[in-house]
Structures are given as C-alpha cells and as structure tokens.
Specification:
With 441 residues, this protein is mostly helical. It has one domain (10-434): Amino acid/polyamine transporter I (Up-down Bundle). It contains 20 helices and no strands. The relative contact order is 0.19.
Length: 441
C-alpha cells in the first residue's frame, strides 16, 4: 500500500484543531444555544462551558492515546487497536460515509449563507455551497501542502472577528451596563422552553466539534506521537477561552432578544451598531474566511476517509482508494468519493429547508453518534492503560464518558433522531456487506 509523506508539523496540527473548531459554529449556533436555554444568558453560558469542558477532557484522553499509536487515521487506528480490525473498519466507514460528508455539506452551506450576506444576494445559496464544496476538494486533492498552509493562515484570520467582538462587547457592555442587563433579563420572544440545558449543550457541541479530525493526518505529521497530543490540548484551550469571551462580548452590545432576532448575523450587527455598515461588511468578510477555513479542515479529513479503510486492504476496491498520487502525494480517489458523499448530504440538507421531510439536523446528530464511539474507547483506556496514573486511566475517561452521555441525552431529544439512526445503521450494514478481505476480520 502506498504511503503518505511526513509533511505537517505542530502548527498545522494545532491550526486544524483551532481552524476546524472555530469557524462557523460560534456564529451559526449562538442564537440556537440561547433559544434552547429559554432565553437565559447564564444558562447559555453554562451550556457553552459544559460543552467546552467536555471537549477539553475528551481531547485530553485522546492526547494520551495519541502518544501510543500512530498509523493511518487517528480515531480509526485507536478503535482498531481497542477492538480489532472489524471495529476499526466500521469506525472508518462511519467517518467516511456519515461524519465527514455531513459536516462538509453543512459548512459549505454556512459559508454560502454568509457569502450571500456579504454581497447582498437574494438567491443562489445552494449553488454557492456546491461551488465551495468543489473548490476545497480540488484544493486538497491537487495540493495538500497548499491546503495545509490555508489552514494555518485562516486559523489566525478567524480569530480577528472574535477578538473585535470581544473587545468592543466587553468595553461597551461594562461601561453602558448592557452586560449586566443581558445576564439579568432573559429574552421574551421564546415560544417554548427551548429544550433545556442538555439540548443547549448539544448545540454548543457542533461549535466545539472538529478537533478529532486533526487525528486524521497523524500519518503525515512529523513526530506525531509528540506533536498531536500537544496540538490537541493547546488547540482545545484556545477554542474554549475564545468562545466564552466571544459570547460575553455579544451580550455587551445586544440584548438577548436581539441576539435571537439577529440569528447568524449577531457579530455583524455588533460591529455595525458601533462602526457602521462598512465595518459590518468587512467583518462579514472575515467570517466568510473563517467558515471556509473550517470547511477546508473538514475536507482535509474527508479526502483521507476512504484511504484509511483501503490502507487496511478493506472495503470496496482498496487497490483504487488506497492509491496516493506520486506528484501531489494526495489521496485523489478517496477524495473524489468524499466529494460525492458530501454532495449527496448537501442534497439532504437542502431537503430540510424545502419540506421534503421534517428537519433532520445533520449538523448535530452525527456528532452525537460519534460520542457513542468515544464511550467504547474510554472503557478500553480504563481496561488497558495499566501503566498510567489513576487520573489518566480512570478519572479522565470517566469524566469524558459522563460528558458523552450528556451529549447523547441531548441528541435523543432532537426531532428525527430515529430516522437518522436508522439511516446510519443501514450505512453500517452496507459497510459490512462491502468490507471485503473477510479473513482478516
């Protein structure tokens, strides 16, 4: 099987964590978290904090696992080590056919949504989303090194709008009293309870999600056993601090009702109220770049999805999907499949908005399903890491397991959870039927 070169370092891995996680979720889900919290800012902040702590403790456990194993695709490697080739194969299948492409589809749409606002367009969002999807898959299969540089660059750029909102919000909110008002006065325009703290936390998990994709390039990281754990922990800490300050910053300028009414445009409204529409437009440009950085990071994982299966000589046509282009050192065939799957899920996302069915939230449900996989790994760590301290072997994975269960509980309360589970199980069944090389399982 052809192998990938060691072409990435600490900054690229850290940029994947920061660049994938910080991007759209903090803008896209701010109002959703507040609505689910019943319009209460304190409850919303607790949800953001719980989601952040879950990410930190989970990434800590995975950082410890990463110091031991380094093969082709982090999460798949770990599950294979824990539960054998069949288990690793099924996790790789889920990541390739559900997790990566669903999030790629949603991020392409979110990026297109902000692009529509930037250019004051009234139609064409789905065409723009498809174009973005196409461009970033082309970038990653034709020039993975350039894609890595884009990831590092956008990781820095996307902190700009967050920093601006934080500074302006804190200064204005504390001098004019809006921060205190937002903490003490809940939004009034809430039609229901919103779902409660568990559902609010699930919404934050989308904003915090993506760090695990950094493990997908471990075969291409220099000194991965040292580089990846450091990148996971540093990236997670940066994200949580940035998110909490950002949310407080918005609350310093907008009331809770205004945040809900602004929906995805809350950060733009903050800047526009202070500096005018031109500044708001410039900020929107930064937000678009931020979202595209996240999309690029997700695509980096997606183009390697089927390769991680084929590298084990499993799945359909491993001799095709396991190929690495000699000139670009990229997994072109695996990337083409990732693009097709992402396009299919984009059609599913389109159907949500055009009355084809109820709203199947593919921005959150695949993440919750992934946390079921995490639970199995926590049990494995407790059972197998006999040479570690009590905290590393038992306390950390136990805390991460509690967080995972809390997220799964929030997902159970979502609409269309049963249809999504059925679809996912059917995809698993297809994977079992097409796994090939059965003697190795």
């Amino acid at each position: 099987m052809e192998k990938l070169q060691k072409k990435y370092g600490f900054w690229t891995a850290t940029a994947m964590v920061v660049g994938i996680v910080i991007g759209s979720g903090v803008f896209f889900k701010a109002d959703d978290v507040l609505i689910a919290s019943g319009g209460s800012l304190p409850i919303a902040l607790v949800a953001w904090l719980i989601g952040g702590l879950i990410m930190i403790i989970t990434s800590f456990v995975f950082a410890k696992i990463a110091t031991r194993y380094e093969r082709v695709n982090g999460l798949v490697d770990y599950f294979e080590e824990a539960y054998g080739p069949k288990g690793g194969y099924l996790v790789g299948w889920f990541m390739t056919f559900v997790y990566y492409p669903t999030l790629c589809a949603v991020l392409a749409w979110v990026s297109a949504n902000y692009t529509m606002g930037l250019f004051a367009l009234e139609s064409g969002i789905w065409l723009i989303a498809f174009i973005y999807l196409t461009l970033f898959f082309l970038l990653n299969v034709l020039s993975p090194v350039l894609a890595g540089r884009w990831q590092v660059s956008t990781a820095m750029i996307k902190l700009v709008p967050i920093a601006i909102v934080v500074v302006i919000g804190l200064v204005m909110g504390l001098t004019k009293g809006q921060t205190i008002a937002s903490f003490t006065n809940s939004a009034q325009n809430i039609s229901s309870s919103g779902g409660g703290l568990a559902v609010a936390t699930l919404a934050t998990v989308f904003a915090y999600e993506g760090w695990i994709i950094a493990t997908s390039i471990n075969a291409e990281l220099r000194d991965a056993k040292k580089t990846l754990p450091k990148a996971l922990m540093v990236g997670a800490a940066v994200v949580v601090i940035a998110y909490m300050l950002y949310y407080i910053g918005i609350a310093g300028v907008l009331t809770n009702d205004q945040v809900i009414a602004a929906a995805d445009n809350a950060p733009v409204q903050v800047i526009s109220l202070v500096f005018g529409n031109l500044a708001g437009t410039i900020l929107t440009l930064f937000v678009v770049v931020s979202c595209l950085g996240t999309l690029n990071g997700l695509v980096m994982g997606s183009v390697r999805g089927m390769y991680s299966i084929a590298a084990r000589k499993l799945g359909p046509k491993p001799e095709i999907f396991g190929k690495v282009n000699e000139k670009t050192n990229s997994t072109i065939n695996s990337g083409i499949l990732g693009f097709i799957l992402s396009a299919i899920w984009l059609v599913v996302w389109y159907g949500n908005f055009h009355g084809w069915w109820g709203f199947m939230d593919i921005s959150e449900l695949p993440i919750a399903f992934l946390y079921l996989i995490y639970l199995s790994l926590y049990l494995w760590v407790m059972r197998s890491f006999t040479d570690e301290t009590v905290f590393v072997r038992f306390i950390a994975p136990a805390l991460a397991a509690v967080g995972s269960c809390y997220i799964i509980w929030g997902a159970i309360q979502k609409a269309m959870i049963i249809p999504f589970v059925v679809i996912t199980l059917l995809i698993f069944l297809a994977g079992i039927l097409m796994r090939g090389n059965k003697n190795s399982l």
